[in-house]
Amino acid sequence: MKRAFLLAILTTACTAAMAAQPVLQATTRPSDAKVYIVSPRDGATVPRTFTVRFGLRGMGVAPAGVERADTGHHHLLIDVKTLPAAGQAIPADAHHRHFGGGQTETVLTLSPGTHTLQLELADSRHVPFATPLLSRKITVHVK
């Protein structure tokens, strides 16, 4: 629990610092890479607390801050209507969850109702790739 709390504070501080900086050069990625949500399935009814599993093909996962070709780390976009700006770090807030430790799943707690989930893979600096790598947006119904 302490590690997750410290990671959240560090991610928020890093995102705030990067957001104050000028537009960053976007990293390229393999054109055949694909990011997707393994589970839950689109349209699923889930309990308030449930597991979201991330999938990735054509690239590898590496923690934030580790610069390695053809790698990135996941960001889970929750109820996001407008994608993060090109050349800017993805914000860290209740709608943009960072997985800078290289995680490939998370336990998520949402309020009852209908929500959308989408993954975005970003580079070592939390910046979306030059050609954004996004999953299909899914809808879940929380009991």
UniProtKB/TrEMBL annotation:
It comes from the Bacteria. Keywords: Signal. Residues 52-143 form the DUF4399 domain. Residues 1-19 form the signal peptide. InterPro entries: DUF4399 (IPR025512). This is Putative PhzF superfamily epimerase YddE/YHI9. It comes from Oleiagrimonas soli. The lineage of its organism: Bacteria, Pseudomonadati, Pseudomonadota, Gammaproteobacteria, Lysobacterales.
